Amino acid sequence: MTRARLVAALAVALALGACTEADLFSTDRPPKEPDRVTLSGRVCADDPQTARYPLRVVLLVDRAAGPLFSDYDPAALRVKLMSSFVQSALSQPETAIAIVGYAGDARKLAPTEGSFTKNPGQLLAALELLSLPSPCLGPGQCRDYLDGIRAARALIEADMASLSAGARVLTQYVVVHVAAGRQEPYATGCGAADVACERQREVDEVTSLREAVAARGAAGLRYHVIHLAAYPDAADDDEVAAGLEQVALAGRGLYQRFESASGLGPAAFDLLDVRTVLRAKHLVVANVNAKPTPDGPALDSDGDGLSDDEERGLGTDPTARDSDLDGITDLVEVLTGLRPLEVDTPIACAAVSAGADTDRDGLTDCDERLVGTDPSLVDTDGDGAPDRLELVLGLDYLNADAEGDRDGDGIKNGDELLAHSDPRSTDIDAHFTFGYRYAITDEGVRTERVAAAPKTLTGVEILAVSDGTTPGVGALQYLPATGQLTWRDAGESATGPLVAVSAGGEITLPAASFAPVQGDDGRFVRVRVTPADLPPDPTIEAVRVVLRERQCLDWIVRNVRLMPTLARTDVTGAAAGHNDVLVYFAEAPEGRPTAPGPVKIAAVPFELVSPTRRVPDDAIVEVLDEEFVRPRVGSGP
Questions:
Q1: For 384-543, where are the alpha helices, taking DSSP H only?
Q2: Which of 110, 255, 521, 583 could form a disulfide with 126 if both were Cys (CB 3.0 to 4.6 A apart)?
Q3: CA distance 181 to 103
Q4: What pLDDT is stored for residue 428 in this prediction?
Q5: Is the separation of the CB atoms in 280 and 45 below 8 Å?
Q6: Confidence band, pLDDT 50/70/90 cuts, at residue 155
Q7: Over the stretch 443-477, which tens digit does the pLDDT of each residue have?
Q8: In the prediction, which pLDDT does 19 show?
């Protein structure tokens, strides 16, 4: 695990309570106390696209007979563009697609089974059907896109039901509605001339869909509209446009209008970058080998939530989290009335692999089934406190209770959890003596340019993209005969100068327009080249550059206590003095701060070698953003 430079000490800002502690903690560089550590870092919320979170796309397409087919787009250019869109989207491994066509009613055209697919054969065959007009079901029953929205909702809800909660919080849904005319007939309850009523029904349908996605705990939904203005009379198109704009607004999506098929282009379908963004929610640090008590941290050598003294009283092994090796940690067996010294086989865990911990939160999947938490979520109740910490501290891990004060000592439960003090006792002295001290600076949301990793051009890694680089599809070209590489910016037709790369290392590739005086405002990419891995043949690879929005926090946490642990006898085999300090970083979908979201975890190991020495011995230990890992989550229910 990387341990970078020493960080200059930051001024202490009291995050817990209203009392000042200037006399207790100096703002100068902290002293090197072997059993006290300070951690710092900068951590950013994930960008769902670059983090490759699952993406589910519904193409909802108008196929009603009329001017769309006869006058507006008889060559079916729209179908060709959708085919290109599908093939491009499927190149992203996290993306799956469904296609719904509507005329007098709506029909799912792909996939043939299930809700979404990555099968290009099924999807392209479905698109071919969209090039054929579908007749009206009867007089005035020609275009029911409300039924199409309901069909899209059915697919999305079925998909959400098939996912674990941990997979749902990562999954984004996108509807791309290709519309060419007004609803026919008007919705039930709206008269044929009641345009306002009809528009409200359309908005209500999309709003209901978006709210259903949020209610089931998915990352979010975007509903985009591509309006093909196919009516001969522009006034009719204007009327349709007014409604579709409101629909896109209700779906937090984009509205685009095209007066002719010739105006359509690939950019019209370049919508998958517009997703629900994640925001920073909570950062918590905890040494799992130091159990909070009214008298300060107690030694917990195996980090199971029972102190070594408690384990000796129970007869369990203080050096193994699961004394009887039945896949249930000792603390959970004690809390649920099981036998921590005899193998238990509860029915709730019959289908669970012994010892498995899907979400990496320190509770086994069997533990979580027994106590009622979700084994795919680090924070089941969405209050920003990890399930394991709430369980150990006796808080409510199924209902948000951060604002409560269980022990009535005037310090909120959430603040006690942050300080790593005991929320079950009035331990004010211990809270201020042993409590962790946080100083967190919210940097806000920053926009960065990120390039996709080359696939065919082996031996080239893109390290950075300049602020001036144009988002879109650029290109790298390698010429093995001369050992040169060049870059073409997405906003330019000409390639940049050839740059020799035979020696390898980190190299800057300027675009054609770049001049040194431009600095980072110019157009260039910086790459790392490994000559031995370069391809033997001339290679041109398209490289997509996207804008990534991330909210970042600068943080420092002081006064983290280390413990003189015993050597572990379980599978970890940790040596005496080993301490696991965990940093949890919780995220939430934008606008839904209380919703359970993804949680990234960084594990920072320390060794308290002796009363006067620890490893690492830096005054401040830096935790890098890339050290945070996301839990593994499956797609099953």
A1: 387-393, 413-419, 428-434
A2: 110
A3: 10
A4: 81
A5: yes
A6: very high
A7: 998 888 989 889 899 999 999 999 999 988 899 99
A8: 35
**pLDDT at res. 43:** 96
pLDDT tier at 368, thresholds 50, 70, 90: very high
| Mean predicted confidence (pLDDT) in 276-301 | 94
pLDDT beyond 80 at 508: yes
Q: Helices 195-215 and 145-162, interaxial angle, to 10°?
A: 10
Angle at 270 between CA 266 and CA 275, to 5 degrees: 170
Contacts of 604 (CB under 8 A, 6+ apart): 1, 39, 580, 581, 582, 583, 621, 623, 627
Angle at 599 between CA 593 and CA 603, to 5 degrees: 145
pLDDT at residue 453, rounded to an integer: 86
CA separation for the pair 231, 71 (Å, rounded): 9
Asked if 391 and 331 touch (Cβ cutoff 8 Å), the reply is yes
Q: Find, among 633, 586, 582, the residue nearest to 385 by Cα.
A: 586
pLDDT tens, position by position, 596-628: 999 999 999 999 999 999 999 998 999 999 899
d(C-alpha 567, C-alpha 534), whole Å: 47
Reported confidence tier of residue 479, pLDDT bands at 50, 70, 90: very high
CA distance 250 to 247: 5
- Maximum Cα interatomic distance, the chain, rounded to a whole number of Å: 89
pLDDT tens, position by position, 425-449: 887 887 788 999 999 999 998 888 9
Cα of 171 vs its chain's centroid, Å: 8
What residue type is 276 in one-letter code? T
State the DSSP string of 534-601: S-SS-EEEEEEEEEEEEEEEEEEEEEEEP--PPPP-STT-PPTTEEEEEEEEEEEETT-TTS---EEE
Please tell me the distance from the alpha carbon of residue 623 to that of residue 283, in angstroms, as a whole number.
13
- 3-class secondary structure, 199: helix
Say how many Å lie between the first and final Cα of the chain, rounded: 34
- Mean pLDDT over all residues of the chain? 89
What percent of the chain lies above the pLDDT cut of 70?
93
pLDDT above 90: residue 256: yes
Around 116, how many Cα atoms within 13 Å sit in the side-chain half-sphere? 31
Label the pairing between strands 499-500 and 484-488. antiparallel
Contact 211, 258 (CB under 8 A): no
Nearest to 43 by CA among 561, 382, 446, 527: 446
Rounded alpha-carbon distances, angstroms, from residue 19 to 11, 14, 423, 427, 429: 16, 8, 18, 15, 13
Cα distance between residue 56 and residue 240, in whole Å: 27
Mean pLDDT to the nearest integer, 231-254:
95
Cβ atoms 571, 364 nearer than 8 A: no
Cβ-count burial of 626 within 10 angstroms (0-12 exposed, 13-18 middle, 19+ buried)? exposed
Gyration radius (Cα) of the chain, Å:
29
Do strands 460-465 and 437-451 pair parallel, antiparallel, or not at all (unpaired)? unpaired
Instruction: Fill in the DSSP letter of residue 18.
Output: S
266 burial level (CB within 10 Å; 0-12, 13-18, 19+): exposed
Q: DSSP string of 485-515?
A: EEEE-TT-SS----EE-TT-EEEEEE-TT--
